[in-house]
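Hi there, hope your week has been kind to you so far. Do you reckon you could talk me through the fold, stretch by stretch? I've dropped the whole record in just underneath, so have a look:
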Amino acid sequence: MNLQLAMGASHLLGPLPPEKTPSILKAIRHGQDNPMAIIPRAAYRDPVWSSSSFFGNALLVSDPAGVKQVLLDKVANYPKADMEREILSAAFGEGLLSSDGEKWRSHRRIMAPSFDIRSLVSYVPAMAAIAEARANAWHTAGSAEINISDEMTGLTLEVISRTMFSADASDLTAIVGDALKDGQDQFDFSILDMMPVIGRWHIGRMIKRVHETFSVLDDAMYPLIAARAKMAGDAPRDLLDRLIAARDSETGIGMTDREVRDEVVIIFLAGHETTAVAMTFVWYLLSQHPDVEAKLHAELESVLGGRAPAHADLAKLPYARMVIEEAMRLYPPAPGLSARQVAADDEICGRKVKKGRMVLIFPWVLHRHEALWDDPLRFDPERFGPERSAGRPRFAYLPFGGGPRICIGAQLAMMEATIILATLAQKFRLRLVPAQDIELQARITLRPKDGIRMRLEPR
């Protein structure tokens, strides 16, 4: 088995990258699917790193204080780069992922109630029931071979559909799922994008393909939004109703149909794709670390004893949470945050940055940085225990981003992942099918390119 990743030191992570910066041609050849695989080793050692031959004139920031400066302390001086906003807007419009300024703040206020603690607690029974149903389907399959990536994608898509959308949106759920899967395949960022002339051409082609992919989604979504809008005045049944009916608490202005569409797509992306990615790598890592798996099983047996988890149980499953957190450290679902463009001259960690320069923050690098993590390539859930977490800088770990733009669904994702893990791990072990090459594909999220084949082993 060969998992092709950067910064590896064992069978789990592959060979170390070269000490020197790779050439442009090498980057194009090897970094098209997973640009993270060609980041030079120096980037995992230096607090800030740059190379004109690799990132153009961009600065990669991996010092927590520098990250905090960009994402929080001086966030207004580091807006999203125009090029990246243009690309993301092709698929996601002006939703939370790509919007800025007052529009972003207004939409965040409108959507916040759907992610408060009362709403989250109300989602738990459906999450547990869906996970139980998946376990029953696995029991029927016996010791079958499955693609765990596909299984987790289907499971989390059903969760987001059941918890946030009503039955009449079931057809839309399938269309959104297909659009997100096919659409991400069009986001083929590469070193080509840094080049003059050819970069603009490459990005233009990418945007055209994304528009074409998401046009099918739009054809289905707008009639549904219009039909729901005619029911205005009825009690909201789901998130779609709430988005249509909502008014900003400060301005009193509601969302247009286009804005509702944009936020629904973002909810699907954040609500199922990222959790599916995280859980795929949780199962992979557990299959490679039987000692961790045994500790997890002991905790689940002690707390749940075979029953389905409830919301009150989540606080009693700290090891399960640590397993998920450590999996997201090694394999962050969003391996790179949005590129930022310096609005006014500044200084980051003693390095002067001029107006217009690009600043990058990669959780993939941050989570494996030698200055921040002991033995950073080792899978060790207990590094997230209270004692070892004490004193760790907040901006050393960013599976959901950071600052005011931190993912609105972060708590939902952790709750969902814990319930899925607690439910399925009580009933099954998953064993990696040998002799398969597993390659990563880094788009908006980090996925195994062709999935990961595993064999079910009922407990």
Summary: The CA atoms of residues 123 and 163 lie 6 Å apart. Residues 80-336+370-458 form a domain with the Cytochrome p450 fold (CATH 1.10.630.10). The mean pLDDT is 81.
